Amino acid sequence: MLEHIFLLMAFFRGVSSLSKLRSRIVQQSSLNGSVRWLQMQSASDVDLHLQLKELIPEQQERLKKLKSVHGKVHLGNITVDMVIGGMRGMTGLLWETSLLDPDEGIRFRGLSIPECQKVLPAATPGGEPLPEGLLWLLLTGKVPSKEQVDALSKDLRSRAKIPDHVYKAITSLPETAHPMTQFATGVMALQVQSEFQKAYEKGISKSRFWEPTYEDALNLIAQVSVVASFIYRRMYKNGEIIPADDGLDYGANFSHMLGFDSPKMHELMRLYVTIHTDHEGGNVSAHTAHLVGSALSDPYLSFAAALNGLAGPLHGLANQEVLLWIKSVVEQCGENITKEQLKDYVWTTLNSGKVVPGFGHGVLRKTDPRYTCQREFALKHLPDDPLFQLVSKLYEVVPPILTELGKVKNPWPNVDAHSGVLLNHFGLTEARYYTVLFGVSRSMGICSQLIWDRALGFPLERPKSVTMEWLENFCKKAAS
Ligand code: AMX
């Protein structure tokens, strides 16, 4: 099917009059059997803002109809377990940019990671997708052309200016402050530029909320990679700052500003940023941004809040924890640890009341495809790296042990089980910094959805809470 898409893409690109008709290719979604449209556009439609302006009324109408026709349809029953258990399995959020299937993993606007790797424009033929392409897809639901991605890259570069006070705010913190604390501080300092806040103070109409949100969102996405690089260079490279290179795409430029200029590291960063962007709406960082944004807090405020959630060890900080844990394995048992020794090490971790970082998930029930594509990258570019080989051994050793525990719902590795060893291989060895990379990438998913939150007029989020007494009384009544 994908080969057919490529042929059609080439055909439509060549015939500009036809492409103006915005031809559509129908593809069956293997996720739910529903028909999905992959829309091709004229290469000259490079203005993302205009694209959204066109799309928003369609989607507003769609939501209105959904509400008026199906508003009273039940989506499921809420159990006491769900209320006590962190709302697992409770459908309660609208999140347009991506959807997570427990077995198949993430789909960005209907496209799986392998599909994105095939259809999104790359820097080099057959290379990893450009994150700007994924951003375009998240925002519009359409696969962009290379021209559109290049235009978005250029737009982002033009927005990547950082006021001095941001650097001052960061450097007012001790250099030893956790990089995520420095990052959230930097994002909060950027907030003083918020276009949304200015427009709201001037009394902008609700129907136009999405426009300053769009400006903030794109500015923020552009700025976070610069702020993140500043923090890295400040903490680990004697404050020697590397300026942006205007000839590079988002992922490569980020890698360059961090100080890593090998073509393989550029490719890794493109892949890394692409796969960490979005993971539907219920995870801690995405949900936090959505919740805070629902109070009409601007994208900076919402994203800074999300970063504070991402900084938790059960969520984004797991990538730091994984590499530190792997390094502790090597320190104690050496790189050539046997599977038996590794099993003992895993049991020691569990018996000391800790989790095995990088394994398990709140929704996924199979190996995370974000893990799989990183494994494929490693097999291609660093098959002999000893830490990669250790990660491979863990893939064999950990799931049976977690299954044996009897309570772990998903014994398989998640995204964080793999990312550290790839970064470490190319010289980015400072594990405490890893969650910042995750945060930079997550800005794309979170900000895309925030634009749609405002475009679709989502209301203040305010679920009902109850006390244990309320639950006990409710259950007593239900039983009588
Ligand atoms: N190691 C040890 N125990 C684990 C475990 C792991 N990797 N994963 C789950 N468990 C335990 C839980 O702690 C829980 O124990 P409890 O009943 O004694 O409290 C029990 O198994 C049931 O948990 P679950 O329903 O399977 O998972 P969850 O939805 O409550 O939590 C997650 C999901 C990710 C927090 C959990 O699997 C975990 O702690 N994993 C390790 C940390 C990690 O890798 N986090 C990153 C996740 C991806 C991301 O957000 N970046």
How would you portray this structure in words?
Belongs to the citrate synthase family. With 480 residues, this protein is mainly alpha-helical. Helix content is 59%, strand content 4%. It has a 3-stranded antiparallel sheet. The chain is globular, with a radius of gyration of 23 Å. The structure holds amidocarboxymethyldethia coenzyme *A (AMX).
Short description:
One of its GO terms (cellular component) is mitochondrial matrix. This protein is mostly helical and 480 residues long.
CATH level 1 class label of one domain: Mainly Alpha
Number of contiguous helices = 22
Order of helices and strands: HHEEHHEEEHHHHHHHHHHHHHHHHHH
Rg value:
23 Å
Q: What is the strand content?
A: under 5%
Summed over residues and divided by their number, the pLDDT gives a mean of 92
CATH architecture tag of one domain: Orthogonal Bundle
**Major sheet, described briefly?**
3 strands, antiparallel
Bound molecules: amidocarboxymethyldethia coenzyme *A
Helix content: 55-70%
Pfam families: Citrate_synt (PF00285)
Family: Belongs to the citrate synthase family.
Organism: Amborella trichopoda
GO molecular function: acyltransferase activity, acyl groups converted into alkyl on transfer
